[in-house]
Design brief:
Radius of gyration: 19 Å
CATH topology: Glycerol-3-phosphate (1)-acyltransferase
Distance between the termini: 17 Å
Number of domains: 1
Number of strands: 9
CATH architecture: 3-Layer(aba) Sandwich
CATH class: Alpha Beta
Shape: globular
Strand content: 15-25%
Order of helices and strands: HHEHHEEHEHEHEEHEHEH
Largest sheet: 7 strands, mixed
Number of helices: 10
Length: 277
């Protein structure tokens, strides 16, 4: 079995000072990275197996289901199929999920979940294990993925084109409509996957969305996915994903001038949680 994070990292004594400086300046922060004791060959085999499973799910199950739901005009019924597919894919990756802090959520409120992002595993984890029906903000490039790109519109996954301000504004307006319809919303606030151990600067879009919908922000720290299936590693190792839902940050009565403070508060909560592993 891989070592626990506490067994494999020796944080420098000044790590708290480094965290605080990076939080204030909204700059990249790097933490020590755990490593699996499994061979890279086994990791590569599992990696390619996981993508074979993903392709099979998309072609053999998602495609016919989407066609039927499109014909009967019941696109939203795709949610339970995607939930099953996400759990199946995570199992193929060797991943289990443990969630902390779910008891903090009020069942009568919608939230903007603001999460770090180091792996493809994060998307399925946030979308299906936060305990809330939600939409997600995704990169525009995902629209080009066959079947998956078409299915994004079925389940309120909204692609953001950050190179075009007008299109980005339209996407955020759609996100507001999704929340008005009773859904929460999840945003990977760094805007892209970080390299293993990194926490990148936060973008402002999630905080604008929270203010415009008067929704509390839930900072989310997702742990272990960087060593399990990190960016540019080309491997997938079995392990337990830890997702920590941190205390809500209220936005009622605030305006756009408060965004820097909201970023600092959210980033502080996530960074300190990531450091504590």
């Amino acid at each position: 079995m891989p070592e626990t994070p506490a067994e494999n990292r020796s944080a420098p004594e000044n790590i708290s000072g480094e965290i605080e400086k990076a939080i204030i300046e909204n700059k990249k922060l790097t933490f020590p990275v755990k490593e699996s004791n499994k061979s890279r060959l086994s990791g590569k085999i599992r990696y390619w197996w996981s993508w074979f499973v993903a392709g099979s799910l998309l072609m053999l199950i998602a495609t016919p289901v989407m066609i039927v739901l499109f014909i009967i005009n019941r696109r939203i019924w795709l949610y339970p199929f995607t939930a099953w597919g996400a759990r199946t894919w995570l199992r193929a990756c060797g991943a289990t999920v443990k969630v902390h802090g779910g008891e903090r959520l009020d069942p009568d409120r919608n939230y903007v979940f603001v999460s770090n992002h180091r792996s493809y595993l994060d998307t399925a984890t946030l979308f299906f294990f936060a305990g809330r029906k939600m939409g997600l903000v995704a990169k525009r490039e995902l629209l080009k993925v066959p079947v998956f790109g078409q299915g994004m519109n079925f389940v309120n996954i909204i692609a953001i084109d950050r190179s075009n301000a007008e299109r980005a504004m339209r996407s955020m307006e759609k996100a507001r409509r999704v929340m008005a319809g009773g859904c929460s919303f999840g945003v990977f606030v760094e805007g892209t996957r970080a390299m293993p151990g990194e926490l990148l600067p936060f973008k402002k879009g999630a905080f604008h969305l929270a203010l415009q919908t008067n929704s509390p922000i839930i900072p989310v720290a997702i742990k272990n996915t960087d060593w399990m299936m990190g960016k540019r590693t080309g491997v997938a190792f079995a392990g337990e994903i830890e997702m920590v839902l941190l205390p809500a940050i209220e936005t009622a009565g605030l305006d756009a001038d408060s965004i820097p403070d909201l970023i600092r508060a959210t980033r502080s909560a996530i960074a300190h949680e990531l450091a504590d592993q």
